[in-house]
Amino acid sequence: MNNKQFLTELSGKCQMSAESAAEQIQTLIGVMENVWKNGDSVSLSGFGVLEVKKKNERVSVNPTTGVRMLVPPKLVLTYKPSSLLKEKLK
Amino acid sequence: MDNKINLSQLAERMAQEAGMSKAAAEQFVKNFFDIISQNVLTEGIVKVKGFGTFKLIQMEDRESVNVNTGERFTIEGHQKIAFIPDADLKERVNKPFAAFETVPITEEQAAVIGQMEESEKTEEIKLKTTDNMEKKETESKKELKEKKTDSKVEKEEKTGCTGLKITVWILSIIAVLALIIFLLWPLIGGKILGRADKKMEEKAAVTAPAPAPAPAPAPAATTAKPAEAKFALTKEDEAKALPLFTIADTVNYKITGTLTTHTMVKGDMLTTIALKYYGTKKLWPYIAKYNNIKSRSFKRLPVGYKVKVPKLANK
């Protein structure tokens, strides 16, 4: 399912135009970003947890050249599906 | 920090942001995630612009080990929901760390990192009880040393430093083994030969009298060198075990000159030469000594090799 299909389905369910739905999606993402910025996680029952995790810096070695590289620490957005959703998957 | 924001809280914030009613916002958020979760199950992939991609990933069967029992078992292949954030979103999330870049490490930096790790370790040690203190310190020191040698190796040859290390290890192990075998050889070799002699002796007792002793008695002289002393030791042991063989079991011989020269033929060993010229195998160490044959080549003297057979005289 691509973005277009997603938009049409969402706009149909919420009875709004596709354009406004796209706008609302951007607002929602902006709100969630603020949540993550504060170090909080978005937890939705039946869907899962969207959380920003910090990955530590590490030294990686290029296997062909043997050059050691220092990979800096980073913040990564992670998603952990809820057990309910996992059950449905089976 | 570390709060969990649920659906209603999220909707509340969104209602403020977008200027819509809370109920509508909640409905919208609910639909948003419902559509994703449903369609990812039915279609396998959902792409949302500005957010990311949810998709089903097939995990292959893999083997694992039960931690408690150590039994091996297979984790059966299954599907898993993966989320790949949109590149833009990823960047925005990582904004606090965006200034960092992946950089190659130079030698000095590697040393600094090593020191940092070392200091971290010592701090840990301080925190822990004194029980493991010494042990851990030595461990961390060892690690530091290893790191130092590592970096040295890298200076010499940047690639394949682990390979070099392994070969050095293997070589040193082989060297140690060779040394042990070399040191123990007279003992082992003597025992084996002693056994062979015993058999010979039994045969001789059954069939005919023991071969006549060849070496002639002569004035005494005790100029036994350390190497001879070793042989002498094993010989004395054998003498205790085999009282019948009084001729050869002593160290009471000295080399007075060359009796003859023997050219090795196939099947010849120092023991057989000794048997031929002295009538006993046990005097072979004198031949080895006289010809300066090192212990490691006793068994593989080449055919055609000329062995000088020494003339032996009683002390």
What are the SSEs and their pairings?
The complex is a heterodimer of chains A (90) and B (315).
Chain A: H1 3-14, H2 18-37, E1 41-44, E2 48-55, E3 58-61, E4 68-71, E5 74-81, H3 83-89
Antiparallel strand pairs in A: 1-2, 2-5, 3-4
Helix pairs in contact in A: 1-2
Chain B: E1 4-5, H1 7-18, H2 22-42, E2 45-48, E3 52-59, E4 62-65, E5 72-75, E6 78-85, H3 87-93, E7 103-104, H4 107-127, H5 133-156, H6 161-207, H7 226-241, E8 253-263, H8 270-278, H9 284-290, E9 306-314
Antiparallel strand pairs in B: 2-3, 3-6, 4-5, 8-9
Structure description:
The complex is a heterodimer of chains A (90) and B (315). Chain A has 90 residues and is α+β, with helices and mostly antiparallel strands. Chain A has a single domain, classed as Irregular (HU Protein, Chain A). Chain A has helices spanning 3-14, 18-37, 83-89; strands spanning 41-44, 48-55, 58-61, 68-71, 74-81. In chain A, the strands form 2 sheets. In chain A, strands 1-2-5 form a 3-stranded antiparallel beta sheet. In chain A, strands 3-4 form a two-stranded antiparallel sheet. In chain A, β1 (41-44) and β2 form a beta hairpin. Chain A is elongated, with a radius of gyration of 19 Å. Chain A starts with a helix and ends with a helix. The mean pLDDT of chain A is 87. Chain B is of the alpha+beta class. Chain B folds into 3 domains: 7-97, IHF-like DNA-binding proteins (HU Protein, Chain A); 107-154; 181-314, no CATH class. Chain B is built from 9 helices and 9 strands. In chain B, the strands form 3 sheets. Chain B has a 3-stranded antiparallel beta sheet with strand order 2-3-6. Chain B has a two-stranded antiparallel sheet with strand order 4-5.
